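User: Predict the full complex structure for these chains.
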Amino acid sequence: MTSIQPGALDLAIAASLIVFDAVISTVLGLRLHRQVIWAAARMVVQLLLVGLVLRWVFALGSPAATLAVVVLMIAAAAREVAARPANSLRGWPGLWLASASVGLSSIATVLLALLTVLHPTPWYEARYAIPLIGIVLGNVLNSASLGLDTFYSGVVNARSAIEARLVLGATRQEALMPLIRDSIRKGLIPIINQMSAAGIITLPGIMTGQILAGMDPMDAVRYQILLMFLLAGGSGISATLAVYLAARSITDERHRLRLERLHHN
Amino acid sequence: MATATPRLHVDQMRSALAGPFSFSLQAGECLAISGPSGSGKSLLLRMLCDLDPNTGTVTLDGKPRNSMSAPAWRSKVLYQPAEAGWWDPTPATHFRPQQMERVHALLPRLGLSSTHLNNEVRLLSTGERQRMALIRSLACEPQVLLLDEPTAALDPESVSAVQQLLQEELAKGMSLVLVTHSEDQARLLGRRRIRMENRCLSEWSGA
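Assistant: Here is the predicted structure of the two-chain assembly.
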């Protein structure tokens, strides 16, 4: 594998594009130049830090350190899922629900990949486990928050239709089922689009990266196919889990709708 | 008769928002509730059908509410809000197949026809929707019906059709808790009258 590594000078040349953006913003009065530069600076610092941490964790080869990084990543994703929808559950239940759906779905799919498909030695090898959990998390986060957003706003908007079923003797499961279906479907649409567009409209990021890093295109494609399957599985699990848990949390054992447990972000 | 178990018995039912409420209701009896808007009439009905959390004892024919599942309770003590909700585009799919015979018998009683079943709900007039909602509630054959202003959007002809239908159901043994702003309706249907003020009840006989 031969690859061309961009050096500091090369990156500096590429950074001139950010300056170009800032100039456009100033000339056209977009009032975005400060944000563009700030976001670019943040990106550089965050990625450099991640690079350092990963290099350190890879070198350490300690399962505990790998686990700590994974837990941290899941917690950050869960926080995002809990905060992103326009409505969400108050307090701990919301965070718990987000952690459970994002955590279980990403861990389950990554374990499947590590134990049955890739089997590196040892199976928890940080070089494989951490990037995999990262890309899966990005996707399950998206699916779970889309599903939850659809579900919570649906519950608020369709309250009278849902209560109409409850007062006629429907169970909470029956009353919420159409909305549950709708919400899980919403959560799965992005990954379906991503799979349909892959290779034709976009070259997926991982594949592009591996080709740039010198891998044979067919090998990169096989990797990408594996990843797409993982992402699709993870999305399905996380959207389903998140929406079902939300449906249980927004109702009680007497099959009542408890909208006071929601709050508007 | 005087010692018979009441159809509905309510003792010290209260929530964070309203109560305590205590009363009982015999089979075939109608309790008419009046009172200013916001006095808690709808809250009372929602608590009775267990749609809002509340404490206290409520029994149906002597059976405590907590001994039944909530869906089983609600199909016997059935609440119809002032503006009933619809979850499908047309009324037809809001009924179960075994209810259709009764539905077709009830439609002409309230000035509706079978074609209304397949019209879009949002294209029905407010009054038509309200009558269709009453048919939907009666088709479940509840033991106690909790009605929130069932004739608010109706013309005089429909009002008397609804009242006559309700009188027949009462005669057949259904009990009714009726929230109404109409003095005439309260007098016609309710042998017992209750006034709600500041989220509490005061009963007076309006024979």
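Chain B has a mean pLDDT of 92.
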